[in-house]
Amino acid sequence: NSCELVITMHLLYLTLILFLIMDPIGNVSPYLTMVGEFSPKKQRWILCREMVIALCFMLAFYLLGDYIFD
To answer: In a 3-state reduction of DSSP, which class is residue 19?
Structure first.
């Protein structure tokens, strides 16, 4: 199951790179400043909406990246 190990290591590598690029710990303060005036329910909705939008962009570039950049 060497193939599974390679896939798992690749996924962990990409996750770490994405974590370092996005800097979620450093973005907590600006996020709280921007949404501080909203209710906690609205804050959760904004956070979920933005995560879905980011996921859509990541999937689009994953699926179309070779076509776009070639």
So the answer is: helix
Cβ proximity of 33 and 22 under 8 Å: no
At 40, list the tokens: 């906690």
pLDDT at 40 > cutoff 90: yes
Does residue 37 have a pLDDT over 90? yes
Q: How confident is the model at residue 65 (pLDDT cuts 50, 70, 90)?
A: confident
Reference 30, options 50, 53, 12, 6; nearest CA is 50
- The token duo for 68 is 């776009």
Angle at 26 between CA 25 and CA 31, to 5 degrees: 90
